Amino acid sequence: MQFQLPPGFYTSDTIASLALILTLMAVRVIAGRALRRRDNLTETVARRWSANVRNVLVLVAVIGLIMIWAPQLRTFALSLTAVAVAIVVATKELILCFSGAAFRTFTRAFSVGDIVEIGSSKGEVVDLNLLALRLREFDERDGSIAPTGRTLILPYSLLFSSPARVLPHAATGLTHSFTMTFDPDVDIFALRHELEDVAARALDGAGELAGPGIGSSPPQSRLRFRTSDIGKYRVEVSIAGCTQPRQAENAVACAIGSFVHSRIGSADKEQSSAASGA
């Protein structure tokens, strides 16, 4: 079996490199022999000169090899640059996630327990790590904020593309609002205090609507009375501090609707009695 060098080995750069190395080795051998022949030099001085010559020859070898292989080194450097750029592009989101985690930590933008809105996502922060945050998703419709039961995982890179808003509901609980419309058959404005008592009793009768995750205080209702553009009566109900807003809305709406319609029925009976007596 015969050993053969690859065809690419016989290049001008390879021959020049071998010639440079052999020349420098010959110079070192000659310089070493010349120093040993000097009788007027002490051993310490001879070693010093030998080390200096060796260092100079190594420096010349490095500079010479760099000059010989400069085109190939330039190509290699461009390849490394391309690889570095590809790595940065491939890990851009990961780098942004780490940067976003540092940004949130240093600015103290939000923490676990806050209700935040990032882009189109909204929810309560339940966990934070180095790459992402986990939200208990909330949905907002008609001024109401209610949990959807879903969990969102948002990467910190979103902090650099979307504003992060901390909502004021984190300390006071969730607020749910809805509107009830009635015909002007009964004066609900005169029944304001009675309707407020009816709504409060409806919430008190549904104790499961307030959960430990929101707070120890029971849900509270607030009623606002308005009229529509066509002259109908509107009751805007806001319920704060409830964990199950749909059930709370159903309880309050049924109680208020039943009370109003009972008053309408009583008014119709009185009108019928008055008409019969006349």
Automatic annotation (TrEMBL):
Which family does the record claim for this protein?
A: Belongs to the MscS (TC 1.A.23) family.
Name the chain's protein.
Small-conductance mechanosensitive channel
Q: Which organism is it from?
A: Croceicoccus marinus
Q: What does this protein do?
A: Mechanosensitive channel that participates in the regulation of osmotic pressure changes within the cell, opening in response to stretch forces in the membrane lipid bilayer, without the need for other proteins. Contributes to normal resistance to hypoosmotic shock. Forms an ion channel of 1.0 nanosiemens conductance with a slight preference for anions.
- Give me the Gene Ontology terms describing cellular component: plasma membrane
- Do you know which PANTHER family this protein is assigned to? SMALL-CONDUCTANCE MECHANOSENSITIVE CHANNEL
Chief localisation class: membrane
SUPFAM superfamilies xref list: Sm-like ribonucleoproteins (SSF50182)
What is the membrane topology here?
Multi-pass membrane protein
The record's subcellular locations are: Cell inner membrane; Membrane
Residue span, Mechanosensitive ion channel MscS domain: 104-142
Subunit structure, briefly? Homoheptamer.
Q: Which GO terms describe its molecular function?
A: mechanosensitive monoatomic ion channel activity
The organism's lineage is: Bacteria, Pseudomonadati, Pseudomonadota, Alphaproteobacteria, Sphingomonadales
Q: Where are the transmembrane segments?
A: 14-31, 52-70, 76-98
